[in-house]
Amino acid sequence: FIQRSACNTLQVLSNGSAYICSRVGAAGGIDAVVAAMSVYAYDNEVQLSGLLLLHTLMRVDGQNELCVEALYNADGIAVVTSAMKAHQADVSIQEKACGVILSFSRQRAIGSSQNQRKCVQCIMSSLRLHPENESVQQLGCAALWHLVDSSFFVGNLLAEGPEAALTSAAERFPESAGGWCQRILEKLSSEMEV
């Protein structure tokens, strides 16, 4: 209860304020959230409140370098993918986790090859398990697009056999996910030709 309440309070305080987000990052807020999520890995409410806070801290446009670095240094992406694996049926957790990965990957490389592989696997699993949820499809596809810059990610994505899930997302949600899916499929196609 305390962990969830702390994450919720920080999320409310941080929402929309670049200054407060940077203060939360500077005060060790990211480390505390990652630690809470690690300790309470099977508590849906702690995971969701932690992901909500991380998503808030990661998405303050151009003002969150400190938070991005703090998440990287705390190996927070591993905690995010662990939450995705442990709570596959929880669409809210999947949505927020995809959002964290998207916001993070727009600004920084994911890090270890193990984390890279887990990101691709978890996002593909989310896309397949929640095909009717527009936010999961949009955020997941956008995150994959930002991840496929490196050939390592392309190889991991190809290993997941993404074509059916991406085509489905593009057909169901052409305006929100279609463009991301098209770009990913074109990138994969060009990589396979090489």
Give a quick summary of the entry.
With 194 residues, the chain is an all-alpha fold.
Description:
InterPro entries: ARM-like, ARM-type_fold, ARM_LRRK2. This is LRRK2 ARM repeat domain-containing protein. It comes from Pseudictyota dubia. It holds the Pfam family ARM_LRRK2. Residues 32-176 form the LRRK2 ARM repeat domain. It is a single chain. With 194 residues, this protein is mainly α. Helix content is 79%, strand content 0%. The N and C termini lie far apart (53 Å). It has a single domain (1-193), classed as Leucine-rich Repeat Variant (Alpha Horseshoe). The protein is globular, with a radius of gyration of 16 Å. It has helices at 2-14, 18-26, 29-39, 44-58, 65-73, 76-86, 91-105, 113-129, 134-147, 151-159, 163-172, 174-193. The chain is built from twelve helices and no strands.
